[in-house]
Write a structure and sequence with these properties.
The protein contains 5 helices and 5 strands; from the N terminus they run αβαβαβαβαβ. By secondary structure, the protein is α/β, with parallel strands linked by helices. 20% of the residues are buried.
Length: 146
């Protein structure tokens, strides 16, 4: 076997090893990315306010934390343009990359047109399915409560 073939095989093995290392590191990093989804169906403004405080506290410790809050049930009323209770907090959360999701099933049940919602929200077909999908994707689940 020529010297060139031996060096070529060694280089191939080295590049393959390096590629596998980088690929596995990338997969490991993706698996360890922190993501959390809050389940919020409580109309109590104290509970809703607590969620936004918790988001700020979590972000202070983990700035790259991926966050989604899923509003459903009567809690969706807090996202109406006419409700100014959390307007500023919702805008700030959205600016920081927080996804504010609202359940379309709840909107239909409560006869709320999506055009009545703040522009910062994202309508999802079903809160239940959204929460199931996020958990299946490895997101941590938090239930908003007292």
């Amino acid at each position: 076997m020529s010297n060139f073939c031996v060096k070529s095989r060694s280089m191939t093995k080295l590049f393959l090893s390096l590629f596998l290392f980088l690929f596995s590191s990338s997969v490991f990093a993706q698996q360890n990315k922190l993501s959390v989804v809050w389940d919020l169906n409580n109309v109590d403004t104290a509970v809703q306010g607590a969620v936004f405080r918790q988001i700020n506290n979590a972000r202070a410790l983990k700035p790259d934390l991926e966050i989604e809050v899923v509003f459903h049930g009567h809690a969706v009323k807090s996202l109406l343009k006419v409700d100014k209770s959390f307007e500023e907090r919702i805008k700030k959360a959205k600016e920081k990359g927080v996804t504010i999701a609202v359940c379309n099933n709840s909107l239909k049940r409560l006869k709320i047109d999506p055009s009545e919602l703040m522009q910062e929200v994202t309508v999802v077909p079903s809160a239940v399915v959204e929460l199931i999908v996020k958990q299946a994707e490895g997101w941590s689940y938090l239930k908003a409560g007292n």
